[in-house]
């Protein structure tokens, strides 16, 4: 079957069906690890191949790379419901979380969910020398744990180890009541479920998982009010108001919007990210969520686990026996925090559920 053409305009509604989107992948059968590393589409592969060939011919151009970055910035902004001026770019979750952590007032309190991914934990623990206090509580207790002394609550919208969805509405309500800033990591959410970044003071997303972009393409969205509290600790030429006038000192004139938090991009990765982001902008993400969670629930039914309506399903596997069974059957899964972990995405279907269940049966 000939793949449907990928539309790259700014769609107000979905323009690709899930069936059409599936034709953009060259593989995916038995790949249950989008939560670890997403798969590229044929469009991302083609874009990166063409870029590498242009580089080899000496035809790469810094200004054209900059145009790609700005298109991807605008595309991601559209995907998560903010304007491009609220999006900063970078390469790693920990770096962006570190920017926020470095801006926390001396002696302030941060509340985190216990067991969250280290990139959303370590940057805040590293501020202990300034008297910053980090309180870690169970995810279910996060909203109730905020007080008027809490400066920031930081959490992943979907927990990496378990796939559990945070009750972001309750957390945001508690944050409003206590005048607490909110930082949400959407890395394990964006791409398989709708994400509205505008409801948080700041969000972080590394797009190499569910969005299928090359590793090294990350986004930081920030409200104007919260941006005023942050220090551009990683400021370089790419954070300048005029990029090409910011290549040398001694003066510094940073961008007035979120670009002042930009980190210089790894150009080839952004070439691959453009078709990846465009694909998910062209989809009904509620339909993607229903597809992925439906497969997750089918696996839970087969394993005798409660239905969770999650794209990531994990269960205790301290000795790694179940993960070894999945691997021996030729499936790609992962193990985290003493648990076996599988993930279902666009390129998976009911046959993948059957393969996993067959592998796990005694």
Could you describe the 3D structure shown?
The protein is of the alpha/beta class. The protein folds into two domains: 18-40 and 284-360, Aspartate Aminotransferase, domain 1 (Alpha-Beta Complex), CATH 3.90.1150; 62-281, Type I PLP-dependent aspartate aminotransferase-like (Major domain) (Aspartate Aminotransferase, domain 2), CATH 3.40.640.10. It is 34% helix and 14% strand. The chain contains eleven helices and ten strands. The strands form two sheets. A seven-stranded mixed beta sheet has the order 1-7-6-5-4-2-3, with helices on both faces. It is globular and about 65 Å long. The relative contact order is 0.17. Residues 1-13 have low confidence and may be disordered. It holds the Pfam family Aminotran_5. Keywords: Aminotransferase, Transferase.
Shape annotation:
globular
Strand order of the largest sheet: 1-7-6-5-4-2-3
Reported CATH architecture of the largest domain: 3-Layer(aba) Sandwich
CATH domain topology of the largest domain: Aspartate Aminotransferase, domain 2
Summed over residues and divided by their number, the pLDDT gives a mean of 94
Radius of gyration: 21 Å
Largest sheet: 7 strands, mixed
Would you list the SSEs in sequence order as H and E? Answer: HHHEHEHEEHEEEHHHEHEEH
- What's the CATH class label of the largest domain? Alpha Beta
Strand element count: 10
Segments where pLDDT lies below 50 for 5+ residues? 1-13
Distance separating the two termini: 38 Å
Domain Aminotransferase class V: 61-303
Protein name: Aminotransferase class V-fold PLP-dependent enzyme
GO molecular function, one term: transaminase activity
InterPro entries: Aminotrans_V_dom, PyrdxlP-dep_Trfase, PyrdxlP-dep_Trfase_major, PyrdxlP-dep_Trfase_small
